[in-house]
């Protein structure tokens, strides 16, 4: 099954079985699901979470509970802005009173600050997913932003190949196999309802941005890429 057909199947099944949550319809999104709070709570039992001081989490609704719990647990939270248009935001739990409100996209802009990723080291990455498999394959909503976020983190040294990457999903989102390409970033842990699955780590983690695969207009749409490309070109001279 190709990537888009797999996405369509998962979105359709979540809706048909009544486990899709706001915002709906879930088609075209990282789907929020009934039990996302339960999965977030279970994530806290992961040793990598307990040890992490700084966590990167995607901005989608499915991981809102993860972001709020991280702030309540006193962890620094880094979020990508939607479509990376404004780079990345850092939230300091010591400066936040309402973690749930601050963990929303609007709240993050209000309570966080823009951050250059070279300033920080990320101890754990949480990504949103449409579908995952037990080998570590992950499928996003087709925009490529999840993979690009991780590539940027790796490019600036905020993460390395040993930095654990996890996702929270509904069991319906765990499929037999996800097609993976060179630029696709795999995951290490799948956290679902009542279960944590360590993947078999079949796929290598991309070492950074694969510049030749970026569309030509990416540098206009995502200013941080233009800055990183300039640094990359200067470093290669």
Strand order in the largest sheet: 4-3-2-1-5-8-9-10
- What is the CA-CA span between the terminal residues? 43 Å
Q: Beta fraction of the residues?
A: 5-15%
Alpha plus pi helix count = 9
Q: What value does the average pLDDT take?
A: 93
Q: What is the number of beta strands? A: 10
Q: What's the CATH topology name?
A: Rossmann fold
Radius of gyration: 17 Å
**What percent of residues adopt helix (DSSP H or I)?**
25-40%
What would you call the shape? globular
Sketch the major β-sheet.
Answer: 8 strands, mixed
Number of domains: 1
Q: Can you name the CATH architecture?
A: 3-Layer(aba) Sandwich
Uncertain residue segments = none
CATH superfamily: NagB/RpiA/CoA transferase-like
Q: Structural class, from helix and strand content?
A: alpha/beta
Would you list the SSEs in sequence order as H and E? Answer: HHHEHEEHHEEEEHEEEHH
CATH hierarchy class name: Alpha Beta
How is this fold's topology laid out?
Blueprint: H1 3-16, H2 36-43, H3 47-51, E1 54-57, H4 64-72, E2 76-80, E3 88-91, H5 99-102, H6 105-111, E4 113-114, E5 124-127, E6 131-132, E7 138-139, H7 145-155, E8 165-168, E9 189-192, E10 195-198, H8 218-221, H9 223-235
């Amino acid at each position: 099954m190709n990537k888009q057909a797999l996405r369509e199947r998962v979105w359709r099944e979540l809706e048909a079985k009544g486990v899709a949550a706001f915002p709906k319809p879930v088609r075209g999104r990282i789907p929020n699901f009934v039990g996302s709070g339960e999965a977030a709570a279970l994530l806290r039992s992961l040793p990598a979470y307990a040890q992490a001081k700084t966590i990167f989490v995607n901005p989608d609704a499915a991981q809102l509970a993860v972001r709020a719990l991280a702030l309540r647990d006193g962890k620094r939270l880094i979020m990508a802005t939607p479509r990376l248009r404004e780079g990345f935001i850092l939230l300091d739990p010591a400066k936040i009173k309402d973690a749930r409100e601050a963990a929303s996209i609007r709240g993050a802009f209000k309570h966080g600050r823009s951050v250059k990723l070279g300033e920080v080291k990320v101890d754990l990455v949480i990504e949103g997913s449409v579908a995952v498999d037990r080998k570590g394959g992950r499928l996003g909503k087709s925009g490529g932003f999840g993979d690009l976020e991780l590539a940027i983190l790796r490019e600036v040294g905020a993460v390395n190949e040993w930095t654990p990457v996890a996702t929270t999903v509904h069991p319906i989102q765990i499929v037999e196999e996800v097609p993976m390409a060179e630029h696709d970033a795999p995951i290490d842990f799948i956290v679902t309802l009542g279960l944590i699955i360590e993947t078999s780590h079949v796929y290598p983690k991309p070492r950074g941005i694969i510049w030749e695969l970026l569309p030509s207009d990416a540098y206009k749409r995502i200013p941080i890429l233009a800055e990183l490309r300039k640094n990359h070109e200067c470093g290669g001279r």
